[in-house]
Structure formats: C-alpha cells, structure tokens
Amino acid sequence: DTEVTQTPKHLVMGMTNKKSLKCEQHMGHRAMYWYKQKAKKPPELMFVYSYEKLSINESVPSRFSPECPNSSLLNLHLHALQPEDSALYLCASSHRTSELRNTEAFFGQGTRLTVV
Amino acid sequence: QKEVEQNSGPLSVPEGAIASLNCTYSDRVSQSFFWYRQYSGKSPELIMSIYSNGDKEDGRFTAQLNKASQYVSLLIRDSQPSDSATYLCAVTSNAGGTSYGKLTFGQGTILTVHP
User: Fold this and answer.
1) Are A76 and A89 a contacting pair, CB within 8 Å?
2) Is A56 in the B-facing interface, judged by CB distances under 8 Å?
3) Which residues does chain B have within 8 Å of residue A38's beta carbon, measured at their own beta carbons?
4) Largest alpha-carbon pair distance within chain A?
C-alpha cells in the first residue's frame, strides 16, 4: 500500500476563515512533507516533519501552521490567507533507510485550495 | 544556477518512438534521484528511482545516472499517447547527517505523444 490520503479534495475559503488540511499515511513513513504547487510550476517545499518534529520550514508565512499529531497524521492549519495562496497543496511521505538514504516520496492527491 | 534543471520543453514525439528526458543537478552530495509523472490537475506519481551510477530499467522506462557529470535521464520506449504528461526530475541530498532529505524538483518537461 503506497497510499497517502488528503482531505478535503477541494476547499474554497474566505480571507477571514480558518480551515485545516489533513493528510494521513499508514506506510510507517517517518518523514512527511507539505508542498505548494501553482499552475505550470513544480511543487515547492513548505515544511518537513521528521519523526513528528518540524525539521524544515522554508520561510513559510505564519498564516500557514503545520502540525504532526502522530506518525501517521499531518495537518496544515490555514488562517487569514490571501488570494495568491490559492494553489494545489500536496502532502507526501517517505522512508529513511539505515544507509541514511531517503527513499521514494509518495504524494497524496492534493487539496485544491481557492481563497476568495 | 538552479539546483535541478531539466531540458527545455515541450517535447513532442510520435507514438512508438523513444522519448528522452534530461536533468542536471548542482549539489554534489545528492544521493537519491527520482522521476515523477504528473497529469494535468493531478498529483505527482513516482515512476522511477535511482541511487547508483548506471542504468535502471522498469518496463518501458529506463533511468540513467552519472554522478560524475551530475546528470540523470529518463528514456521512455514505445511511447504511448497515455504517456503525455509533465515529467518532473527530483533530487535529495542528506547533508550533515540530518534525519531528513529535502526533495528538490526541476521545473518539469511537458511531453506530448501524438498518434
């Protein structure tokens, strides 16, 4: 099973709303990622969690707040977003081998976010 | 210089031909190399991973890695219209013994296979 599940698939929110994106994997992966992807651009890394601890924050604005409640779940809390934050938000997860090599990252189907 | 660069597209090939996609990377400590396929409006789907110099074949796909030249490629044999998609090269490095690896993507190459 190489499935990463993201909910919701689509989200429309106003600039004053608070919403959360959810991601779940049951592959035993201990690294989980949030990416943002704009149209015709590659995925852009936002956050990395390793063993449930935030290990990378790519200078993401504080209106995006990640959370990793346990090894299977990853959330992204959204508050006071701007229209330019509209994008496809992707969650991914991966193993890390004993040779300190990162194995393949598997992506969820994404959440299409529209900020109005 | 971008960390991961892919050959400029779009690339158009006839059905049954070989499609060749290229990628170079700048970080010499890079260790893991991946090719993802992304259909319009969908998420990236892993199609190949390669960690050692040489070739790796999986069905119609062959990945080639040359760490000395910092170059990785993907060949798609007997191309089909269903192969039409954006192909993303991705690279990770494990600098400093940290417990994560930042997965960095190239800008992608749009492939169109026409009947």
Assistant:
1) yes
2) yes
3) none
4) 46
